[in-house]
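Researcher: Next entry in the queue.
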Amino acid sequence: MRSFVLATALLALAACQDQPAPTAASGSATPPADTGKKTPDASAGLKTGDPAPDVALKLHDGKEVKLAEQRDKLVLVYFYPKDDTPGCTVEAQGIRDAWSTFQEAGIVVYGVSTQGASSHQSFIDKHSLPFPLVVDEDQSIAKAFQVPVSNGFAARQSFLIGKDGKIKAVWPKVNPSEHAAAVLEAAKS
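Model: Structure for this entry, 189 residues:
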């Protein structure tokens, strides 16, 4: 049992370390360069121009938001592996630190991972996150967005949804420390 817990913790830590630079900062879904590492095929998931999935997002506070009701807004739905781990924290803090710019740009943000509401609330409280986190314990939101889940952890991928309800930009790989700036740049186009 102890080795299983250790292995799970190591997988979570590895999943939340910094990743290669984003491949869709300009808004196009471009597969990452071949680095010799096995990476998900970016072409297999949702692409720029695809309609955003019509899903209901269960937030950490128990409220529910229907993504289809967010039309006429820019919406960032970003998937991350696990609350309060190094890369996931850097990514969330980057969005938090640029929050006034996100608001000026009219971007609504939803962070999605497979942890429960209490884990999300602790993460929000500890890092003063100004945006809601989505509870996806059953992985239905990840499935709707075609985000791979491995060992219970969602891949770090992001989707910027345009005011027309279509995917405006896709990041099949995210660099946590640069993601906020990349999203703000994509929102301008």
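Model: The two ends are 50 Å apart (CA to CA).
Researcher: Noted, moving on.
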